[in-house]
Design brief:
This protein is an alpha/beta fold and 227 residues long. 43% of the residues lie in helices and 10% in strands. Strands 3-2-1-4-5-6 form a six-stranded parallel sheet, with helices on both faces.
């Protein structure tokens, strides 16, 4: 039986509600291009890199052909607007229940990592006052593959000095759940309405429903049953 020793967290939509701000920043770009996106459509952008997100938006309007320079400009604009939207974030923007969960995990001796596709993750962690809480933050610029590939979760476990099956991954995106499961890590899904091929081990509707002791107990029991 595997003992859980580490916790691997996505950032946007798990630690703080920046997922909504990513959506608003993309929506402004999409509106300008005459491409209709809404929150339901946006689910597919969660966990996906900046460049891939733009490609998914542009794919909605096949006659909107942009060259590399124009795309680069849109990516810059999206990030500039996103940075404006996160300019004011503080520790008050940590999602409900997360601070208690992190504190409980720290005092329980769990090692903790951030596995986020966002290049802005270190800045956000600093603004939230969480920079020193995590033992590792995977730098997405050092990855070969993006979520749903398991690489980021494998690297997070490695950075903690643990095997993937000794960690639990927390995600609010379908791409993330797939990555966690393909890494061989138990997965906790937060607020994901519908699943595809990859199913989480535990589902909660909102972060305040995350109860660490219960999650670790359920995951450990499940592993014992499934061997
Ligand atoms: C992920 C978000 O965490 O980071 C995506 O879920 C976002 O929506 C991606 O596109 C990349 O973020 P950034 O900050 O590097 O543009
Ligand atoms: Mg997320």
């Amino acid at each position: 039986m595997n003992e859980i020793k580490g916790l691997v967290f996505d950032l946007d939509g798990v630690i703080t509600d920046t997922a909504e701000r990513h959506y608003l920043a993309w929506k402004r770009i999409a509106d300008r291009l005459g491409i209709a996106i809404d929150r339901e459509w946006n689910e597919r952008l969660k966990g996906i890199s900046r460049t891939e997100s733009l490609e998914l938006i542009l794919a909605e309007k096949p006659d909107c052909l942009l060259d590399a320079e124009e795309k680069e400009q849109l990516l810059k604009e999206k990030n500039a607007h996103y940075l404006e939207l996160i300019a004011e974030i503080t520790a008050a923007d940590i999602l409900p229940g997360i601070s208690d969960l992190l504190e409980e995990a720290k005092s329980g001796g769990y090692r903790m990592a951030i596995a986020s596709a966002s290049k802005n993750a270190p800045l956000i962690l600093e603004r939230l006052g969480l920079s020193t809480v995590f033992d590792a933050v995977v730098d997405p610029e050092t990855l070969t593959y993006n979520k749903p590939h398991p690489e980021i979760f494998e690297r997070a476990a490695q950075a903690l000095g643990l095997e993937t099956h000794e960690c639990i991954g927390f995600e609010d995106s379908l791409a993330g759940i797939e990555g966690i499961k393909r890494a061989g890590m138990p997965a906790v899904a937060i607020g994901i309405p519908v699943f595809g091929e990859w199913l989480p081990d535990i589902e909660v509707a909102v972060t305040k429903d995350l109860k660490l002791e219960e999650i670790v107990r359920k995951v450990t029991m499940k592993e014992r049953v499934e061997g």
